[in-house]
Amino acid sequence: MSSKGGTALSRRSYRLASDAENPKVTGIVNEKLLSDYLQHVFPASSKQGPASAAYRKTLTFQDLGAHLEKLLAEDNVTEDSRDQIEGCLGPLTVVLDHSSGFEGLLFVDDDLLGVIGHSNFSSIRATTCVYKGKWVYEVLVSSQGLMQIGWCTLNCRFNQEEGVGDTPDSYAYDGNRVRKWNVTTTNYGKSWAAGDIVSCLIDLDEGTITFCLNGQSLGVAFSNIKTGPGVAYFPAISLSFKESVAFNFGSRPLRYPYFYACYLPLQSPPTTDLTKANRLLGYLKTVLSTSIDTQEEKLVERDSGTWQIQGDPTILVTLAHIFNHFAPLMVNHPDVLSGGCADELPDHEVNECLKQLMMSLLRAYRFSPIIPDLGFQIHYLRLTTAILRHEKSRKYLLSNTWLNNSPLSLLTCIQGKDERDTCEETAEERLRRRAYERGCHRLKKRIEVVEELQVQILRLMLNNKDKGTGEASRYIFLNKFRKFLQENASNRGNPTVLCPPEYMVCFIHRLITAIRSYWDEGKRKSPGSISSEDAYVPPQLFYNGKVDYFDLQRLGGLLSHLKKTLKDDLAAKANIIIDPAEIQASSMDDLDEDEETGAAQRPSGAVAMGGALARPSWLSSPTLGRANRFLSTAAVSLMTPRRPLAPPEKVKVRTLAVEQRTEEDIEGSHGNDGLLLGRPLEEPDQPITEKSLLEILDGVVMMYNLSVHQQLGKMVVVSDDVHEYAVALKDTEEKIARCPSRRLDILEELQKSQKVFAEKLNHLSRRLAWINATIYSKEKMLDVYWLLRVCIRTIEHSDSTGSLFAFMPEFYLNVAMNSYSALKNYFSPSNCMEELPGYEETLTQLAAILAKHFADPRIVGTDIKDSLMQALASYVCYPQSLRAVERIPEEQRMAMMRNLLAPYEQRPWAQTNWILVRLWRGCGFGYRYTRLPHLLKTKPEDANLPSLQKPCPSLLLQRHMAELLSQDKDMAASFLNSVLNQLNWAFSEFIGMIQEIQQAAERPERNFVDTRQLKVCATCFDLSVSLLRVLEMTITLVPEIFLDWTRPSAELLLRRLAQLLNQVLNRVTAERNLFDRVVNLRLPGLESVDHYPILVAVTGILVRILVDSDKHGISRAASVLLSDPCFQLRSIQYLLGEGDAGATSADQKHFSLHTYTDYISTEEEQKVERMLTFLTEESKQAAASTAPTSEDDLCPICYAHSISAIFKPCSHKSCKACINQHLMNNKDCFFCKATITGVDDYTKPASS
After folding, report:
1. In terms of Cα–Cα distance, which of 848, 807, 917 is closest to 554?
2. Ranges for the B30.2/SPRY domain (predicted)?
């Protein structure tokens, strides 16, 4: 039999050796009974004529081969070969032309019928063309995105912008935009959805092209198409990124053949092979329904559903003859069989059949039409489950097929189809909503059936008791799973070789369910172990080398560095010793300085990742990570703690490549802890669960970090789109109601918009129903929550090991933060996080982790430290999570506040400052707003942003801050000096940038300000405001830092503060100044730049030191403020709108705190008025009492203050403000560069 694709198996491969060697062997049945049995199973056909039982020839196993060949030969009927049908050119088997007939980047399935777009707009055509007659092919639409399906000639040239239908001799239908294309485009057809079948018909006799959707004709799309000599049309498609379809040119029965009976498929069905397969399946059914009663010597009919292999040689040999003919059909046409028995064939004969069969089931699951009850998907999953129940088949598939090219993750995915019955249109909105909810509920129930079958498949894969035919399935799965993770971790920037994230989301949920079920089964068998509710990954997995983490970063940096710096800690805490010589060899390998050593240590299949696309694991072996291959070359031993003085007795530990590991390497044996080698003393000596489950759990955490969290965030966009279209639809309906009856033109346009919005809303609502059922359901939320708790417990256990915490991979902290973010932002409001079991306790545990580790010296990675800081900053923005921070132990709270109050120099300080501001927001002067007053009329981009949350100050953490600053004077001075330095820098940068913006705006030619420059400018302004608020909080909580001059640096801090406040006021309040002009431009990107936030922050500081302090403090503050040469009373008057009214133009509204009655209380206004009155009087008195000062008596540095300090030992002089500020950073004299040892007060001697 000729092969039509696949692998051809010769007849000689299936000869039964026993046929010739044992001519008389019939098993335990006699010759007559055997003949009756074989005649019953393989009856002569009607073509051979009837034969009575008395006269028919005796049939034995020696004759059965020839008899079966003769029966099957009757099926070799003459087929209507396509070669005999005029009008078609090309190979007998029609597939997609992946060698020359494509443009762009595409993924084509193994059968060359399924295709996925992986570039902007990719195109591909088939290998066969038609030039005469009527032809049809079908396309299963797997996604509802942008695609153009149709026909093209060989002359058509496509690119990344133009595809099928965009050139003169190509014609296409686009169900996404509901249009037809042939250079130009017009409306045509209906909108398609995932799971729909598009039929493409071409009539070359009449010159027409027609399209059908799910068997319903959409009408003639094109007529008078070009025909004649030299013109032939190929099936073709163009599709955008991530869109996918599956073609059927006739290799499988057409879905809707009765709608176009006069049209022929491009490929003739394999009629002869299908007939043979049906006949052989009939024989197999007879064997299953017939048993031999050897005592009564008769045949007995029985139920085939109860049949089991009993070891009867007669039945087994009969089955072997059937499969002798059936196996080649399975290989060449795997779709002819939906299940079978593999025990009757040798391994080398059945393996290829199994592989082809499973790939066929996979394609069928992926590309079958999605009907409302998901019947096809359930059917294929049940068939897959039935095959995987066979132990040898399961292990072969695990070793050779699953998790290569991500088939297992694909089979655990659920691809959605628009639920047209979930959005029934009714008259009342309430009825519509109820109908939608009922449809969603039905959908959820159907999906639960599919998910249960997928979990059954994974449970079969995770079976660790099937050791009868070699290594248990779980360990084969584990090694393949690790390689799957390695490939996806190593190629994160190359989407062409990654498992699609939508598959990963479904895969992780099914895997969690399967893991937890096995975990709890182990708990029931071993009551001393922990349950899955308390699951965690022990810390020794991170440093004992049993688990490969590829090139993923550790908290403490590179693994080679950790091995060298922490080798003593490993020996003391984990009883692990590393040979120094091996550390040196490992270091040389990491640095690529010793090529021979590196080549010997790396696996032979390693390949270099160059500039070309990295090949997936199903094409080549990926390179194992070197930097984190801990102990791959190191000699490891266990130290016996009872004999510390004796030389440590070394026990060699094998560290193998992933694919070489065995059950003993994972689970351990006598004297070998397997994955749990090197248990630290802090870790409890309690069984957890089977060690293989721990590594799978570790892989699940890694999987979430690789792509699952990112995909969860992407799916939220659908819900946002639904809301936007609902608002747009409602707004349009209101406009229609208000539209004057005489303006029919406007009414018509509004009605068109209404129709578009309604259709889009219905489509998105149906899609949202799928997403809520498959991604954001309560069950999926519990899975993510369980993963969060696993990470929290793992971090806590690893943290208890002290310095060994540095070995933990960074992704555990990332998953802890991201999973909490997903639960909070992605699953609400459909599922409430507050209803999760142990919610408050989990929040407190996560708060403790963030509070402790955001400044943990054991963590060195800049990215992970920034992530921890940002997570803590977001955490304190919400009342519930902020209360969780307040619930952690006081010692941890104080340590967190001490880290937040560390000087801002030489570390990322913006997020730290933001955290302190959030703790104060709601307590400051006029600082109770959620959005700035001038932005109230604009709609925020995202109302869930932390910056847009209602104020929720923490009085407890403020009290801790006050205690620390009061008790530690040096820390207080360092902290405040750093805040003042950063304020000076941020505000100066802001002023410089708005000068550039103003200059660009005033140029006569048209100029565009760089958006990045605008963003940086706005950021500097926001930083200035937040730094002022931190100063306000500090001076409110601990005023003595500035006003108690017995404290070191108090006077200097107050003078610096006054200098900066005057600078800000003068810049912002000057009439017709630069700030005013830029604010009035209202440039996009500078929305937050306004008078109110910065002036109110400055006012809050002034009120605190000039009104709310004691008498001595007020006197000192007023003296310092008024003595600053930059002080202008007009700036204070500006706050209440009391500036020079004549300088204000009529069209410009003057700023005044009185206008913000919703933001500033009456009491606060009165304090500002009292402050203004006080400063007015003080300034008058100061002006009257100030005597003229000669130029010789002024400070030679600032020329603003009188000389008041003399330096030792050089006797040079300046004012106190200048010398104190200089000594903060430099000890050399201004003038002579001598080292200053002291500063004394200086008073000018009285003149004689």
Report:
1. 807
2. 74-254
Distances from the Cα of 844 to the Cα of 609, 793, 1058, angstroms: 44, 12, 41
Angle between helix 375-388 and 391-400 (nearest 10): 110
210 phi/psi in degrees, rounded to 5: -130, 150
> What's this model's pTM, rounded to 2 decimal places?
0.79
How confident is the model over 604-610, as a mean pLDDT?
31
Write out the H or E segment, with its range, that includes residue 179: strand 179-182
pLDDT-above-90 percentage for the chain: 29
Phi and psi angles of residue 245, each rounded to the nearest 5 degrees, phi first:
-145, 170
- Check residue 620 and give its pLDDT: 30
Distances (CA, A) of 483 to 403, 476, 540, 556, 820: 9, 11, 21, 25, 28
Q: Which of 945, 940, 931, 1023 is nearest to 986 (CA)?
A: 1023
- Work out whether strand 290-293 and strand 121-125 pair parallel, antiparallel, or are unpaired: unpaired
What number is the average pLDDT over the span 904-925? 86
Q: What is the DSSP string of 996-1007?
A: HHHHHHHSSS--
**Taking the CB of residue 1004, how many other CB atoms lie within 10 A of it?**
5
What confidence category does residue 7 fall into, taking pLDDT thresholds of 50, 70 and 90?
Answer: very low
Report whether 508 contacts 708 (CB < 8 A).
yes
Instruction: State the Cα torsion 259-263-269-274 to the nearest 10°.
Output: 40
Residue 1131, C-beta contacts closer than 8 angstroms, at least 6 positions apart:
1062, 1065, 1066, 1069
**Contact of 621 with 544, CB cutoff 8 Å:** no
Count the neighbouring beta carbons within 10 Å of the beta carbon of residue 827.
Answer: 24
- Phi, psi (deg, nearest 5) at residue 976: -70, -35
Q: Is 189:211 a contact under the CB 8 Å cutoff?
A: yes
Distance separating alpha carbons of residues 811 and 363, to the nearest angstrom: 34
- β-pair type (264-265, 134-141): parallel
- What does each C-alpha distance from 398 to 338, 354, 371, 624, 862 come to in angstroms? 19, 11, 30, 21, 40
Task: Determine the Cα–Cα distance for residues 402 and 512; give it in Å rounded to an integer.
Answer: 18
pLDDT band at 720 (very low <50, low <70, confident <90, very high): confident
